[in-house]
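Format notes (please read before filing issues)

Several people have asked whether sequences and structure tokens are stored in separate files. They are not. Every record keeps both together, in the order shown below: the sequence lines, then the token lines. Line labels are part of the format and must not be stripped during preprocessing.
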Amino acid sequence: MPCFGARPLSAGAWRRRVAGLLVPVAMVAATASCDRSDGETPDEPGPAVKVGLVTSSETNPFALKLTDGAERAALAHGATLMTAAGRFDGDAASLVTAIKTMIDSEVDGILISPIPDAAVVGALQNARAAGIPVIALGSSTDLGTAVDAVFGIDNFRAGLAVGEYARATLGGRSPVVAMLDPASGGRPGVQRENGFLAGLGLVDVDSGATERATAAGVVCGEPAPDPPATAAPATAAPATAVTPATACLAAHPQVNVVFAGSDEAALDAHTSIQAAGGRDVVVVSADGGCAGVRAVSEGWAAATSQQYPRTMARQGVEAVVASVRDGKNVSGFHDTGVTLIAATPRSGVRSADVATGLSDCWG
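Then the structure lines:
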């Protein structure tokens, strides 16, 4: 399977260089290594296609991988790519400005890693009213009619996979669970957590449920409140699960399973477990970044569900190209895959090894 080499984007490509501003550049080089999302060769010349990509911030590892995937796909299909990012995660004002600029630039489609902000939703609705398809990248969203389609992870399946693995790891022991997801709240978090509880055998819940399931085996962990309309600056401390994890372990020393909604939360759980004397606790996460895979490799996390942001962006670009060149409208949810990464295989649970996880991880 061929790899991309170092090739320029078209002269009309854009990349955001300063907060709230789209700055044109003549050439942007994109180098790539082989992975399962590559293998494209340049399309035959066709109608010009301009794709807009809006990501959460220029430093967020997930967002950087989205940008990489979009750049590769734009090269492969001869499309022009405009990119923009928030100054920090949750920077709604910059995202609104970027969306408006892309509408004015008459892009053929907007890809976005969205946030549940009213102003962002309004800007996306304006894009759709102007006839511009909007594709959310990442996971199922709470944005309703503000987007035409979603290319992302099946959060329920991601939670289900690590739940099944934790159950197999426990053997015949009854699970006593701490739920640690400082970014919980909203549909993606609910589906991820419900999937985990279903995989652990504690609940029977529909994958599309919008309410968080309750289970007798869960001794601590409440969903976080919805994020504020205006997020803190980039210099603010990130959400942490150390305090709730420490409090939970102190109050419930019988905890033997921790579900972490992110790689960061898994690290926080490990920190708390070590402080409590290094108890025998199965820690799993539903994120799959490089930090989570390394945690599995180092043995302090049992498993993680890996998602693929580069694939999300690539398929999003391809959908916009197809809408222009083939008249194919895009809609609905498109599952871009999830893989359980574990160092120790468990009978009846399908997983991939750490080497596979490291080859495809982000961050």
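For reference, the curators noted about this record: The domain at 155-307+340-360 is CATH 3.40.50.2300 (Rossmann fold). The radius of gyration is 21 Å.
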